[in-house]
Amino acid sequence: MVFVFVIIGLIVMFRFNDENNELVSHGIENFKYFTVLSNVFCGIIAFSQLNFDILSAFSSREIEGMQNRFKLAKLISTTAVGLTFFTVAVFLWPIYRLPGMYSGSNFIFHLIVPLLAMIDFVLLNAGDKIPFKYTFYAIVPSFLYGCFYLINILINGIGEWPDTNDWYGYLNWGYPIGALIFLISTVATWLVACLLRWISNKMN
Question: How many other β-carbons are positioned within 10 Å of the β-carbon of residue 138?
Fold first, then answer.
């Protein structure tokens, strides 16, 4: 279901998004957003897990270590889409109430896929408990995204709306506040990973 909804979200993103929605761009330009990248990554991991599960069902030989690798990959991808979900649901939606946050492809990428991925992760991860050190690996996607985001601005400049390179507005209050926002988002990512790990270990 995660994989299927990611495909549906991409189709909606390319063909049916409202052009008046300020929270989406046109076509491939949407891949500059962490939301889209994290959802696509989550879809790839889900598809890989599905294939692994099917092959495992028809094979008597267990592929050593693969299940733990998938747990790590799923923690990383689920944390990424979980960060998107909690950022919109807990912070952006209560403050701004922009309808575009949950319309078109954003409805799928901000709500449906993250919820499905998190439910899958906390309920269907039987086996060995997830090691605590895995939570630090979950920071990597958002950290790398933040680094590339900053490098792009340093090379090409901030620009002006609607052609700004600071599409999340991190630098609206200057570089020090932007660095603080980056630090907070990194810590928030780690906390989401810790929460997912804790619930999954308790439930399974």
Answer: 25
